[in-house]
Design goal:
- This protein is of the alpha/beta class.
- It has three domains: about 70 residues, no CATH class; about 120 residues, no CATH class; about 100 residues, no CATH class.
- It contains twelve helices and 16 strands.
- The strands form seven sheets. Strands 13-14-15-16 form a four-stranded mixed sheet, with helices on both faces.
- A hairpin with a 2-residue loop joins β3 and β4.
- The radius of gyration is 30 Å and the shape is elongated.
Length: about 350
């Protein structure tokens, strides 16, 4: 304890005080005036306490020492707090440490109705609840993953927190990202039902643009949003069911960590890593070879990394034209796209 005091981690009350009420009337009078110790805004001594007479004639201290923790000493700087969630209809009735006010599912239904004009999703989570939980558990540049996204409340909560952080002017504020996962929830009676596409993803688009008179978010606050559908393909069927579009997005995620708008043409540009251009070429023919041979000069690239169905042929043809390129198998990229090593642009 002495060491904590020397380090300044024990905070003592600024105005310590001890009171002794020698009669019950004196104690009741102090309670009436609010002149008793408090926990937050709540009085620790109240008239309805069953053992109130115990405190008559006993010394009672006002204020108590507190322990100060430094952020660098925490094992986990985003360790969730134990929270007392106060419903809106009980707001102001009592004070609890680490508490926050949250609405009910009625708020969730109301916001969905404001966004879509009707109740497009039942039992949506209240936005205020998710925002408060994320405000406690995340830092401004974290990635939030919701595997049961439903109507997309988590995504909207992240966007609103980013906007609120950005309004503070902090250089690191407003940089949270989110990944929302959901299923279509289609049934035999409703085979075309797709809540993930028609509710969750559409909600994100409308929230970013603004809805019901509510302003949208700037690019700095919301960034970009992409909707993807995952396909289950057996390894033996990759050559028959997968095309360059699948490879393009998979490589964009692996090499650049982003989802890119798929360009048109036989040669698709993924992006650039330092001085190396990342390209996808689905067909190797005379036209695409000439396009690739002219690429370094036209785009100012020192190196090329090309994913194609015929990497050996492409490498040989470009070498005869004086162009050095690292050529990789498109099929290998698809089959081993999630491996930690493999196709690269080194």
């Amino acid at each position: 304890m002495e060491e904590f005091i020397e380090l300044g981690q024990i905070i003592f009350p600024t105005n310590p005080r001890v009171e002794t009420w020698v009669t019950m009337d004196a104690l009741l009078d102090a309670i009436e005036k609010g002149d008793v110790p408090k926990g937050g805004k709540s009085q620790l001594l109240r008239k309805d306490l069953p053992d109130l007479e115990y405190w008559v004639g006993r010394p009672v201290g006002f204020g108590r020492p507190q322990f100060k923790r430094y952020k660098v000493d925490l094992r986990n700087q985003t360790q969730p707090l134990s929270s007392w969630i106060v419903p809106t209809f009980e707001d102001g009735d009592y004070e609890a440490e680490n508490s926050f006010v949250s609405s009910t599912n009625q708020e969730g239904a109301r916001i969905v109705a404001e966004i879509f004009g009707d109740r497009a999703f039942n039992y949506a989570k209240p936005l205020s609840l998710i925002k408060n939980l994320l405000a406690q558990a995340t830092r401004p540049n974290d990635i939030v993953l919701d595997f049961f996204a439903g109507s997309g409340t988590t995504g909207q909560a992240v966007l609103e927190l980013n906007a609120e952080d950005a309004s503070t002017g902090s250089a690191r504020a407003g940089q949270r990202r989110f990944i929302l996962c959901s299923s279509t929830e289609a049934t035999t009676k409703e085979p075309d039902k797709n809540l993930c596409r028609d509710v969750c993803a559409e909600r994100m688009r409308r929230v970013m643009r603004g809805y019901g008179g509510k302003a949208g978010y700037t690019l700095e606050q919301s960034g970009e949003f992409a909707y993807l559908q995952l396909d289950m393909v057996e390894a033996a069927d990759v050559h028959f069911e997968i095309d360059a579009a699948h490879a393009f997005q998979l490589l964009a995620l692996k090499r650049l960590g982003v989802i890119c708008a798929e360009p048109q043409g036989a040669v698709m540009r993924l992006g650039r890593v330092e001085d190396c251009e990342l390209l996808v070429c689905n067909e190797v023919n005379a036209e695409t070879i000439e396009t690739l041979a002219a690429w370094p000069q036209l785009h100012g690239a020192a190196r090329l990394a090309i994913y194609s169905t015929r990497p050996q042929t492409l490498s040989e043809q470009l070498a005869t034209r004086g162009v050095e390129a690292n050529c990789y198998s498109l099929m290998d990229a698809l089959l081993h796209g999630q491996a930690a090593s493999g196709s690269g642009a080194a």
